[in-house]
Amino acid sequence: FEVGLRAQLTDVQSRLHEVEGRSRSAAEKGNETPENETLQAEMREGWRIARESYQTQIRLIQQRLREVVIVRVAWDMRFKLFNDLVAPEKLDDWREDAHAFATRMGAARDLLLQQSRDLMASLASQEKRKRLIQRTNSEAAKWIDFQIGSQQQLSQAYASSLVQVESFEKMLSNLDSQLTVETKEATASQWLKMARFAVASAWEYEITSVDDRPITVKKIAKGLILLLIGLYLSRRISRFFGNRMLPRLGMNSGVSMALQSISFYFLVTMFGFVALELANVPITVFAFLGGAVAIGVGFGSQNVLNNFISGLILLAERPIRVGD
């Protein structure tokens, strides 16, 4: 596309050079052999319009060449966007650039439309003037035909430029819309990443450390989950042990229930130790705190421990039985 525009530019420049040479030659001949004023005026106007037509065409082509650079940048953006080669933090800048490019193309389109309408109005005026002069001066009318031809060439150049600009504008508008969507998705993705990071930071937050072993929220949560699972499994295993296995071995219901209770508390204790180890809470902490805690717990839980041990004794010695 760019190669075609440059070839077209070279052709129009050569035509302009030719017209400038012919107009100078015609002006010199006109000074040597003056004719009627109307013919001379239309001749000068014809060469002027031809020069301006080619000069305007050159400006249009040069403007399109500058816009091709913008379109090349836009296509590079689309390629990188399609292949996920753009960093999310650049999307906002790219969207602003694409919007500015599309706005620029829209302004160029509006200007071309206005210039094309003005040229069409001028052509209509020239046609009327030609019909009037043709009745009295056919030679001058030929020069008006020449003027009309030059303006028609310019009109075709406007139409071609308008098609190109509209295609550029459409592509840039699509890129702007695509970047707007991508920016919104990137913003949502960034918020999601921030939320994940916040959750991960809270999950890995170190509450304290014992013997250079960190105790984090994640480890405590895993320990609590394991403890709950352990409670459930301890109850199911101890019930199976007390209700199914021990009666098959010939043990009476009292002993079975006593062993069931003992096995339940034993399993709960084991799962508790495993949960503490998973949470990086060493048993030495309880040994360190044991002196102070044991005194307080011992005085405060005498009745609880008495009742617990008495219950086990009742189950084992069976002074009364289940169902009495």
Secondary structure layout:
Blueprint: H1 2-32, H2 37-82, H3 91-134, H4 138-203, E1 206-210, E2 213-216, H5 217-248, H6 253-278, H7 284-300, H8 302-317
Helix pairs in contact: 1-2, 2-3, 2-4, 3-4, 5-6, 6-8
Unreliable residue stretches: none
Rg over CA atoms: 48 Å
**Large-scale geometry:** rod-shaped
**Overall pLDDT metric:** 80
- % residues in beta strands: under 5%
Work out the helix count: 8
Largest sheet: 2 strands, antiparallel
SSE order, one letter for each helix or strand: HHHHEEHHHH
The computed structural class is mainly alpha
Distance linking N and C termini: 104 Å
DSSP E strands, number:
2
Query: Helical percent range?
Result: over 70%
Order of adjacent strands in the largest pleated sheet: 1-2
Question: Which quaternary structure do these chains form?
Answer: single chain
Key descriptive features of the protein:
324 residues, single chain, mainly alpha
Can you tell me about this structure?
With 324 residues, the protein is mainly alpha-helical. Helices cover 86% and strands 3% of the residues. It is built from 8 helices and 2 strands; from the N terminus they run ααααββαααα. Strands 1-2 form a two-stranded antiparallel ribbon. Strand 1 and strand 2 form a beta hairpin. The radius of gyration is 48 Å and the shape is rod-shaped. The mean pLDDT is 80.
Summarize the structure.
The protein is mainly alpha-helical. The chain contains 8 helices and 2 strands.
